[in-house]
Amino acid sequence: MSEEMVEVPVKAAEPLRAAGSLQQNRLFLDFFWDLAKPEQEVRLKAVENLIQYLKTQNKEDELEYTFKRLVDGLGHTRETARPGFSLALGQVLSAFEDVSLQSVLDRIKEKHSLQAVKKKLARNAMFGNLFGVLALHQSGRLSKEPQVVLGCVKLLQNLSQHKQHLKDLPNKTMTDILSEIPEEVFEEVLLNALQTDLASAFRTPEQLQLLLVALQRFPQTLKPKKLKNLLGSSTIINADNIPRLTEVLKMAAQSVKKERVLPAVVLDLLKLSLKEDSFQLFWNKAIVDGMLKEQQGPTHFLSFRLLGAALPLLSLSQLKEVLSGEVMMLYGEHVVTAQKPDRFKLAPEMDDYVSSFLQGCRDSDRQLAVMLGFSSLTNQGYPVVPSVWRVVQHLQPAALLGYVDWLKNAFLQPQMDRLLDFSTRKQKSNQEGKEQENSVFRLRKWIVARLSSIIDNHQVKKQEELIMDVARFVFFHAFFSTRKASADIAETKEKLSVPLDERTRGVLVNSFFGLLMSMHHLPLSDDSAEAAAVNQKRVLGVTADGNMWIYHLVQYADVLLNQPKHVQSSRPFSPEQRQAWDSMLESVANLKKKAKKGPSAESSAFQQLFLLVGMHLFKAPEELLDIMKDLQSCMDKAQEKKAKKKKKKKQASEQQQQEEEEPEWVEVMVDILLSLLSQQSRHIRQVCKTVFSSICPHVTAAALTAILDVLDPDRDDEEDGAVVVTDDTNKPQKKKSKDGDEDEEMEDDESDESDEDSDEEAEDEAMEEEEKDDDEEEEMESEEVDQNFRLELMKVLQQQNALATEEDGSSDEDMDDDAMMELDKSLSALFSEQKKKTQAKKDEKAKLQKERTLVREFKIKVLDLVEVFVARQAGSPLVLGLVEPLLTIIDRGMSSNSEQQEQDFLRRAADIFRNQLCRSKVYCRTVGDRQGELHDLLDKLVTKAQKLSDSSVCLYYFSASLYVVKVLRGAPPAETKDDPTAGRAPATDIEFMGNVDVDRVSAVFRDALSSFMSRRKSPLTAQMFTDLFSRFPVLCVKLLDTAVQNITSGVRDHQQGQACVLVLRAMQSREVQQLLHGAPWTKLCGSVTDQLAASLQNVGQAESKVVKEKVVKVLELCQFVVKQVRHQKLSVDLDPLQNVLQPLTSSIAFKKTGKLEDTYWAVMKHFGVTKPKVEKTKPDGDADQQEAPKKKKGFLPETKKRKKRNKPVLEPAGDKSASTNKPGADKGQAKKKPDKKAKQKRPADGATASQENPSKKSKTQSENQPAKKKKKKPKQKKE
Asked: Which residues lie within the region annotated Disordered (predicted)?
């Protein structure tokens, strides 16, 4: 036994030598674990590391083990692991070319044999074979070993029978193998093996794909004669094979129903038809007459995708034929009927197909054919492609020119018979007599939007001539018509085949002003020579010659107005309007002359304004005539004033100051801008901002007041001169169309398209209207009945004796037919009148709501002017006049139940006030003689802030008061800034308060602070006064005594705590410490110490949360004051404070609030008292010791242990046994276990075993049997 025990470590010593290699192999084995992990990055890294390791080590046994593990892993139960092992096997075979592929293939067949594997693991074996072949294919060495190719193909043929598991993967793998092997290998090795698959090509899409790939790769082998032997015909696509091909295509369509992709076999068939010159046969018979005859679904979608994928492959004639056929018609119906959100839409895929075709095609004719084909696909005149179709940006310049010409010709002479027009089933059932006129209108509406979107899209490569051509075309047909052709005007050479109606002109007008907006933001063309230099400045809205686009259009409009013989205006100018137009041209000419001498932003802004108002004369001449006159007079006065200023420069300074008074023309100009802002046009809004920005330096108080009057909430009920809402039903519609079509024209086109393309949606709208009517009736029923209406109803019923009473018991049955008819007529007239009254109330309510909306929109635009003024003239004294009006807007907006539009207005006003006015670094620093006025304003603001109920509004008022103090103080003198050496220089800089009446302002803020401390519900907050203290230390010093007093005199514990916070922030300020240097600082520390001691004296039993928070703040202030007194050695008596602090632990329980406890002991530390350490008591330790044995597991209770039963048996034994057992009985459980083991080992000695009696043996043997079993367990653990 002893020899065996010695031999065990000898055998175990051998692996010790190999421990290094075992540790090294741990890395090697981890590669295979990583190959099975689901993360793709981990698998790829494992493949890379495995190959690098094998190349570095170059051990045959490890390479052999690698192939074994990789082949085993091909059939892994985890699906994500199989590709990892397959890729690794392919890469290893590629790296170690001396390994035969045949041997690996044999391994794969042997390991994953379908005949030998259990049925449960058959699926894994199938995938093991498949991924094994894929690995051999990925190695790139298949073409070098033809027999392996044959073996792989035969294996894949066997696997193709198990489609329920592998689907079409075996056939796809065969296709991949065919696409890479040389023709010699195919002809010599594979042709016979694939004979059956190639002959049955028309059975499944996979087998047909195999044949098509073979035809593409090996045309010399699969010659027509060979094809005839295989298929019975020398070509694939012929009249006899069309039915079978159609069935295969249907199968292919169903197979990709979920994937929603185009099967490769279908595109290969199309390519083969082009190669065999049988495209028309294939398209017309297989696609149109075959696939499209099925119900709408996968077959139709496959045809649509094939149409998109075929675009790059087809010639010009084939493109025209396909894009005007049945497939396009059905595609259009799909686009129209798939408008609802829950339906599948193929249009985005088609957009991608067309976009990729246009990007890759350089033939302008084919590009134009595709664009015309899709633009000609119309639903009752409206093209199915959106008017903002972005694919136009890929067109070549020649194709773009041709496309624009086609759009213009289609607008002028719409030939509906040449369009691929269709109607849905529901549209056909609802056809009306006006279908032709409506279709022409829909087509023209789309064309106008299409032309505008081409200009609006900056990605489209277009020349300036094209942009101007489109703008002139839209402008001409919006406002003019041709009388006689003129050589000078290109637009008069073509005549309209269908006259323009008012609806079309309205669309043209709105589109033109939207086009003006787009041209206003157009960058310079890249072709211009100056583009590189000018683009650095980002000049927008200017042509290469430096003139604005709108200027060229005004010149064109003037040419049209000056040729009445050839051109007729749709809205002729009156003599007065024509005079205004001519004066506008003259003013612009004068401005351009002055700009040549010295260009300025002001002249450019005025030019824009004149030109824009001039163009809007064509749209609303009556409204803008007065504005044009006022604008002209303002311009004249401004120029005269400037001229006078130049002449007076040499005169005395007194006369110069008189001349520098702002002229009246600015006020008129502001009124003009306000009037223009009422127009629903973003272009006008931007130009008004630009113009106002240029005249900001000249704005007077009266002009600013005119702007603020518009924003005044008190004037909401008054009728504003700039916004007029009339009862005319046409005007609101016009305003709505202006806002929708001009401001967001592209979005409107999309909405029009979605609204008008489908009659289904029209029917849905009709249903919604009916439901709306029903709802209105229900509302009428639910509303309280008007008492007058009740009386009228009772009167009618009494007149007809139809009112039943309890006395006569009459009923409707007692009335004859004539009486019933008379009653019906009376009731009908009464209810009809009541309905009219109710509708009139609703109309009035809607009108008021619309008026409020228009006024609010107008005010939001006016805020633009305020924002511009604050940004440009922040240092002007006039800015101070904005404080109260903006605060009034904020106050009213916060208190009202505002809608979204009101909230936007309020948010905008609050942002201007706080971020751009109060927080601006530039502010008015020349108060002059307005000191008293500003002090009154400050007093008013602070008083108002105390009376408010909303703390958020109060914050704005308090911020305004701090802004007024900042303005009164002004900038400190420069001398103090430049003298850093003087010791008192920083202090004098801090003490500087400019024009502030410190005593008066301190009194104002002291009252506010007292109000905050003495009121239970005050809108003021501690943060407001903290800002005041940090920004104005002088005022802080003045208010400190009030804050210190309120440490004890505050109305509640909360206010007392906030007083401590304010005092602490003030005393922490360096500026305050400098101002109170010396005796005042010592006095302050003493008074604060007394107040703190008094405050802590009154604490009592602190149980509430508020009291504990107050105590924390008091202790924080205590900590700072005591630290300052100790550090600076101030003569302040701290004993009273210490006496109050020491018994504080008895009144406050330091349980949950750790901050309170930490702060308290931090204060006491300054007095030399440290936090006592908590010592563990013995009872806790004994309890732990008693509980310790309970945590041990696996020990029997004392009553169950065998040793107690063995004691009487073992006592008579020798002294040796008795002496060994006694210690074990007295010791604890930890020492009993070794004794048991000693007992169990003793019978192994012959001496001790022979001394025992036979009777003892029988007992010990029976009792030692379980002991022997226990003896094995420790040995197993040791080993």
From this structure: 644-664, 714-785, 1173-1279
φ, ψ of residue 260 to 5 degrees: the values are 55, 55
Q: Which of 1265, 1219, 1224, 1227 is nearest to 1243 (CA)?
A: 1265
* Cα–Cα dist 114/128, whole Å: 10
Task: Please enumerate in sequence order all residues whose Cβ is within 8 A of that of 677, keeping only pairs 6 or more positions apart, or say none.
Answer: 684, 685, 688, 722, 858, 861, 862, 864, 865
- 1276 compared with 850, residue with greater pLDDT: 850
Rounded CA separation 417/419 (Å)? 5
Contact in structure between 130 and 159 (CB atoms under 8 Å): yes
| Residue 702 φ/ψ, nearest 5 degrees | -65, -40
Any domain includes 526: no
Q: What pLDDT does 786 receive?
A: 66
Best mean pLDDT range from 179-188, 449-458, 518-527, 820-829: 449-458
* Per-residue pLDDT, 737: 36
Q: What's the pLDDT score for residue 1168?
A: 84
CA distance linking residue 90 with residue 71, whole number of Å: 11
Q: Say how far apart CA 915 and CA 892 lie, in whole Å.
A: 19
CB-based contacts of 1241, cutoff 8 Å, min separation 6 = none
Q: Rounded to an integer, what distance in angstroms lies between the CA atom of residue 1221 and that of residue 1235?
A: 8
Residues 457 and 596 grouped into a single domain: no
Q: What are the angstrom distances between the C-alpha of 283 and each of 11, 244, 351, 879, 1086?
A: 81, 14, 22, 75, 102
* 1090-1125 burial code (b ≥16 CB/10 A, e <16): bbbbebbeebeebeeeebbbbbbbbbbbbbbbbebb
Which tokens go with 442?
């829909």
How does residue 622 score in pLDDT terms, banded at 50, 70 and 90?
Answer: confident
Cβ(373)–Cβ(321) below 8 Å:
no
3-state helix, strand, coil split of the chain in percent (to 5) is: 75, 0, 25
Q: Note whether 503 and 441 are within 8 A (CB).
A: yes
Q: What is the DSSP letter of 288?
A: I
Task: Please report, rounded to a whole number, the percentage of residues in the chain having pLDDT higher than 70.
Answer: 76
Nearest to 716 by CA among 587, 828, 853: 853
Euclidean distance between CA atoms 933 and 1004, whole angstroms: 15
Strand partners, 382: 379
Which pLDDT score, from 0 to 100, does residue 1103 have? 67
Answer left, alpha or beta for residue 528, where phi above 0 means left and psi between -120 and 50 means alpha. Answer: beta
What is the Cα–Cα distance from 278 to 298, expressed in whole angstroms?
A: 24
DSSP class of residue 914 equals I
The residue out of 181, 200, 227 marking a domain boundary is 181
Dihedral of alpha carbons 809, 813, 817, 823, sign: positive
- In 3D space, the residue among 180, 72, 185, 178 whose CA is nearest the CA of residue 131 turns out to be 72
Residue 763 to residues 428, 705, 769, 1255: CA-CA distances in angstroms?
13, 53, 10, 109
CB atoms within 10 A of CB 809: 8
Q: Could you tell me if 340 and 291 are in contact, meaning their C-beta atoms sit under 8 angstroms apart?
A: no
Provide CB contacts within 8 A for 518, sequence distance 6+: 452, 455, 456
**Last residue of one domain, picked from the residues 1170, 1187, 1222:** 1170
Predicted model pTM? 0.70
Give the number of domains in the chain: 4
Residues 455 and 597 in one domain: no
Q: What is the mean pLDDT of the chain?
A: 78
Q: Six-digit token pair at 862? A: 């006016």
Choice between 669 and 465, residue whose per-residue pLDDT is larger:
465
DSSP conformational letter for 922: -
Mean pLDDT confidence for 676-688: 84
CA atoms within 13 A on the CB side of 353: 20
Residue 45 is assigned to a structural domain of this protein: yes
Q: Residue 897: inside a domain, yes or no?
A: no
Q: How confident is the model at residue 1009 (pLDDT cuts 50, 70, 90)?
A: very high
- Angle among Cα 741, 745, 750 to the nearest 5 degrees reads 110
d(CA 1038, CA 687): 50
- Domain carrying residue 164: 22-181
